Amino acid sequence: MIDLALLPLYLTTVIALLLIPGPDMLLIASSSLSYGKKVGVYASFGNATSGLILTLLAALGVSALIALNPVALKILRVAGGLYLLKMGWDCMRAGPSQAPEIAGQNKLARQLYRRAVISNLLNPKALIFFVLFLPQFVSSQLTASSAEQMLALGLLLNIMGLSFNLLLVALVGSLGKKLLNNEKFRANQNKFMGLIFFVLAIWLLASQLQSVG
What are the transmembrane regions (predicted)? Predict the structure, then answer.
């Protein structure tokens, strides 16, 4: 369901996009560095889950309706920014005694999975990306419908994105392994993640201010 003539260009474009630092890469890398590979893997799958949801929305045309509604976009931007601010504030308030133990990462991994899903779904740029990017590679030469082609393109994009993020987790997680055994770092790792969430919130809210201006 993908035009083979367009496939090389599509793959090249996707690889280029994956290499551009963004909120998702920042969240996954910082999670892996702060809490270890397992948490980073869960964050990666959270990002992939939201990507699949956005792919389905794009294929069904729902996301196109939302993207064309400026009020909906503003609500998404503000909601996404406020949600990330709350996560940042919660992390900053957590004291050293609340720093997660290495042996108890299962709960934290599930939390980062949910946060990765929600933060990406509340990022209107991700929504617009799927609406504007995937249709560029829908071919009239195929018998498959545009929705079927967008679904196939989106699935391929998510597979490549997940593979890239897992590689990122492996690299960053290895670098951060020594940090996880450092008592001083572990006592302040929640504050580190809080700063990351504040950066992500500013990222979203700044885009809202730019659109208003």
Answer: 52-76, 117-138, 150-172, 192-210
Owner of token pair 């994956």: 18
The model carries a pTM of 0.71
For residue 49, being part of any structural domain is answered with yes
Are 194 and 88 a contacting pair, CB within 8 Å?
A: yes
Q: How far is CA 202 from CA 78, 117, 199, in A?
A: 10, 18, 5
Among 34, 41, 16, residue whose Cα is nearest residue 197: 34
Tell me which amino acid residue 97 is.
S
Nearest C-alpha neighbor of 170 from the set 54, 38, 7: 38
Q: From CA 91, how far away is CA 198, in angstroms rounded?
A: 10
pLDDT tens for residues 149-177?
888 988 999 999 999 999 989 888 776 66
Rounded CA gap, 6 and 191, in Å?
Answer: 45
**Which secondary structure element, helix H or strand E, spans residue 135, and what is its range?**
none
Placement of tokens 């799927």 in the chain: 130
pLDDT tens track for 31-85: 887 777 888 899 999 999 999 998 888 888 765 666 667 676 577 667 767 877 8
Q: Which residue in 53, 41, 55, 54 sits closest to 165, CA to CA?
A: 41
Q: Is residue 199 a contact partner of residue 58, using CB atoms and an 8 Å limit? A: no
Q: Which domain holds residue 84?
A: 6-208
47 located within any domain = yes
With beta carbons less than 8 A apart as the criterion, state whether 154 and 134 touch.
yes
